[in-house]
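#struct-help
A.M.: can someone run this one for me? Single chain, 122 residues.
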Amino acid sequence: MSPLEFVAILLISNAVQNSMNGGDNSLVGGIILASTLIFVSWVISVFTYRSKKFSHLVEGTPTVLVSQGKVVERNLRKERLTESELRSLLRKQGIHHIAEIDSAILEADGHLSVFKPEEKAP
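D.P.: on it. Structure tokens below:
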């Protein structure tokens, strides 16, 4: 599930809660609102699939945080990560020293991909 789809689900649940719990909104209004949100989510997913520029704008791009065993400070600042947060993420993957890895990439979905020197493609 992409972050956009997750946000759409949260918006739908918030939109229909009033019509489900007897609030001021009608059930039909809640269904129309939920249908509109689902349609908008679908349109955005189609645009992100068909347009690389739109995909980069909405979903983001991967960022290299470690290159050749050295921290890329500019990219850490861009992602608003401290070096201690990066070290914590690396420890969760069993890496205790930054020099042990060749590169670390913060993916657009928020996961950290770590590559050790022996994992490099020939």
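A.M.: thanks! The chain has two domains: 3-59, 63-119.
D.P.: also worth noting: The chain is about 55% helix and 10% strand.
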